[in-house]
């Protein structure tokens, strides 16, 4: 009986320790997979470049914010990169392709943290607005003649996000999430920039946690 009572007490203490913190300053770092859809439709000097296909890319970034349950407010900086795989010039698939598309995102975000679904696991949804600095390079060696294209633009950006946060310790948490990022039309690219991001991150809370 004493063993059962002690085990129950330990389990209850574990749940209390793993309870969801309600507010405080925090920072996070994250990284993951990036998928970039076709984002170029450029016409210059009689050459129309389009139908870009990118290899699987990556993103890495960090954020700093304040959590006041159920809302979180944060500033975020993210770098996204994907290497070029294919593109067309005047409807002709190019060979000897080299290039990339990368972006630096500076975002201001607001998140809503839902009540924990399994003790210390919280779903979240969020939106953000900010600015994107976009660079693209599309080069090929043929099939008829070499082509070169480089673009660098900035544009208004916005995003929507969702995921799960696992509050496994007083000052630390893990999260997994998905983000859709897009911009207004980018002049040199001729289209909007879009990215689908799947991330894993680590959160550090600076303050002593105050629990529900």
Automatic annotation (TrEMBL):
A Pfam family recorded for this sequence: OMP_b-brl
Keywords, comma-separated and alphabetical: Signal
InterPro entries reported for this sequence: Beta-barrel_OMP, OMP/PagP_B-barrel
Keyword Secreted appears in the UniProt entry: no
Keyword Ribosomal protein: no
Signal peptide residues on this chain, from the entry's feature table: 1-18
Domain Outer membrane protein beta-barrel: 6-206
SUPFAM superfamilies assigned: OMPA-like
Domain of life: Bacteria
Gene3D superfamilies reported for this sequence: 2.40.160.20
Name of the featured protein: Porin family protein
Organism whose genome encodes this protein: Legionella septentrionalis
């Amino acid at each position: 009986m004493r063993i059962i009572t002690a085990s129950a007490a330990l389990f209850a203490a574990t749940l209390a320790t793993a309870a969801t913190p309600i507010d405080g300053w925090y920072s996070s770092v994250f990284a993951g997979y990036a998928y970039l859809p076709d984002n170029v439709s450029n016409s210059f000097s009689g050459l129309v470049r389009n139908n870009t296909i990118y290899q699987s890319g990556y993103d890495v970034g960090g954020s700093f914010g304040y959590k006041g349950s159920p809302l979180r407010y944060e500033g975020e900086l993210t770098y996204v990169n994907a290497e070029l795989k294919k593109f067309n010039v005047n409807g002709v698939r190019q060979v000897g392709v080299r290039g990339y598309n990368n972006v630096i995102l500076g975002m201001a975000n607001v998140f809503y943290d839902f009540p924990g679904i399994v003790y210390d696991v919280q779903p979240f949804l969020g939106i953000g607005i900010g600015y994107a600095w976009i660079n693209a390079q599309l080069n090929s060696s043929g099939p008829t003649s070499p082509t070169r294209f480089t673009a660098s633009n900035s544009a208004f950006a916005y995003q929507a996000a969702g995921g799960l946060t696992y509050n496994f310790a007083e000052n630390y948490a893990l999260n997994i999430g998905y983000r859709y990022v897009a911009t207004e039309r980018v002049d040199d690219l001729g289209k909007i920039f879009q990215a689908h991001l799947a991330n894993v991150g680590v959160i550090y809370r600076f303050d002593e946690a105050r629990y529900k």
